[in-house]
Design brief:
This protein has eleven helices and seven strands. It is of the alpha+beta class. The strands form two sheets. The chain has a five-stranded mixed sheet, with helices on one face. A two-stranded antiparallel ribbon has the order 1-3. The protein has two domains: about 80 residues, no CATH class; about 160 residues, Histidine kinase-like ATPase, C-terminal domain (Heat Shock Protein 90). Helix 2 runs antiparallel to helix 3, helix 6 packs across helix 8 and helix 8 packs antiparallel against helix 10. A hairpin with a 3-residue loop joins strand 4 and strand 5.
Length: about 350
C-alpha cells in the first residue's frame, strides 16, 4: 500500500480538515487573536493531525501488505485468513470477517460437491456391478446357443431398468432443467408404467388391479412414470411365494389433494427398516435376504418426488403388504407456472 494511494483515498477527509483549519484560523484573525496564540494553534493542529494520518496509514499499510504478500505466496489462496494477524482498526476487522464468511461458504459448497461426486461414484460402482450380471447372462446364453427368447428379454429388461435408474439419478442433480410440470392424466401414466412391466407381471403371475384413476394431477409425465415403474418393480421383486401375488393401484381425493396408492401383498418390510427405506444405499433386511438390491430405487423415488413437489410415504407390515402413497397437491400455482413455461 503506497502513501500516495492512501492520500488519494483520503483526499476528501484531508480537504475537509484543511478547510476546518482555514476557517478556524480566519475566525481567530477576525477576532484579533494574538499572533503568538495563532501560531501555537496552527502548530498544535499540525502536531495532532499529521501523526493521526500517518498512524492510520501505517496500520493499514502493514495489514494490506501482509494480506497481499500472503495471497501471492499461497497456492490455496482461500487459506489466507489463517496466515494474517487480526487488525486493530474496524475496516480491517470487517475485511477479515468477510473473508472468513466467504471462505466458510466456499468450503461448504466444495464439501457439498465433493460429497455429491463421491456419492455418484459409489452409485456408479454399484450400478456397473448390477448391470454386468445381465450382460454376463446374455453372453453365456449366446455362448451356449440358447434360443430361449423369454430369458433374453428378461435380461434386456433388467438392463433397461438399470439404465433408466442411473439416467434419472443423474437428471435429478439438475432437475429444474429437465422437468415440466403441467396438468396430466394420471390414468395414462399408470397405464404406461403397467405396460412397461407387463411381461414381468405375467411371468410372475401377478394380478394388477387398477381403479379410481380417472383424474388429472399437476406433475411431469415422464418423471412420474419412472417413479411408478420403480415402485411396481419393487413389488414384483419382493413378491410373496406363499400366496397369489397382487398389486392394487387406486386414488383417493380430498379438497386439496389427490393421493395415489400403490399396494401389494408381498413380503412386506420390517418395522425397524421402515424409517430408513428412503435413505441412500439402504437395502434393509429384504435386500439382503430375498433379492439383490442397490438400495437406490426408493431413494431416487423420494428425491424425484421432492423435486416435483409431491409428498411420498410408505407403510408396510412384514409378510402382509407394502403400500406407497404419493400425494399431489391441488392448487393453481403449478398450473400457472406450467402455462408460462409452455409459452
Amino acid at each position: 500500500m503506497k502513501l500516495q494511494n492512501y492520500l488519494k483515498d483520503k483526499i476528501v477527509e484531508i480537504i475537509l480538515i484543511l478547510v476546518f483549519v482555514f476557517v478556524s484560523t480566519t475566525l481567530l484573525i477576525v477576532f484579533h487573536v494574538q499572533n503568538t496564540f495563532l501560531w501555537i494553534y496552527l502548530v498544535i493542529c499540525i502536531l495532532f493531525l499529521v501523526p493521526a494520518i500517518m498512524i492510520d496509514y501505517f496500520r493499514k499499510h502493514n495489514f494490506y501488505n501482509e494480506l497481499r504478500t500472503n495471497i501471492d505466496h499461497l497456492d490455496k489462496k482461500y487459506l489466507v485468513i489463517d496466515t494474517i494477524n487480526r487488525p486493530s482498526f474496524y475496516e480491517g476487522e470487517l475485511i477479515c470477517d468477510s473473508i472468513y464468511e466467504i471462505d466458510k461458504s466456499m468450503c461448504e459448497n466444495v464439501k457439498k460437491y465433493e460429497t455429491s461426486i463421491n456419492s455418484f461414484k459409489d452409485y456408479i460402482e454399484m450400478w456397473v456391478h448390477e448391470v454386468k450380471i445381465p450382460i454376463a447372462s446374455l453372453l453365456l446364453m449366446c455362448h451356449n446357443n440358447s434360443m430361449d427368447i423369454k430369458k433374453y428379454k428378461e435380461q434386456l429388461r433388467r438392463m433397461d431398468f438399470y439404465t433408466d435408474q442411473v439416467l434419472y439419478y443423474v437428471r435429478s442433480e439438475n432437475a429444474a432443467n429437465d422437468y415440466l410440470i403441467k396438468e396430466t392424466e394420471l390414468g395414462k401414466i399408470i397405464t404406461n408404467a403397467a405396460q412397461k412391466n407387463r411381461e414381468d407381471l405375467l411371468e410372475n403371475c401377478i394380478e394388477l388391479q387398477v381403479r379410481d384413476i380417472r383424474c388429472k394431477v399437476m406433475t411431469d409425465k415422464k418423471w412420474l412414470e419412472f417413479i411408478l415403474n420403480q415402485i411396481i418393480n419393487n413389488s414384483i421383486k419382493y413378491r410373496s411365494q406363499k400366496r397369489q401375488s397382487g398389486i392394487w393401484i387406486f386414488t383417493e381425493q380430498t379438497e386439496d389433494k389427490v393421493v395415489l396408492h400403490i399396494k401389494d401383498n408381498g413380503i412386506g418390510i420390517m418395522e425397524s427398516d421402515l424409517p430408513n427405506v428412503f435413505k441412500k444405499s439402504y437395502t434393509g433386511e429384504n435386500g439382503r435376504k430375498h433379492a439383490k438390491s442397490t438400495g437406490m430405487g426408493l431413494y431416487i423415488v423420494k428425491m424425484l418426488c421432492d423435486e416435483l413437489g409431491h409428498a411420498v410415504s410408505i407403510c408396510s407390515k412384514e409378510d402382509e403388504y407394502t403400500e406407497v402413497m404419493i400425494m399431489f397437491a391441488k392448487n393453481d400455482f403449478y398450473k400457472i407456472e406450467g402455462e408460462e413455461h409452455k409459452e
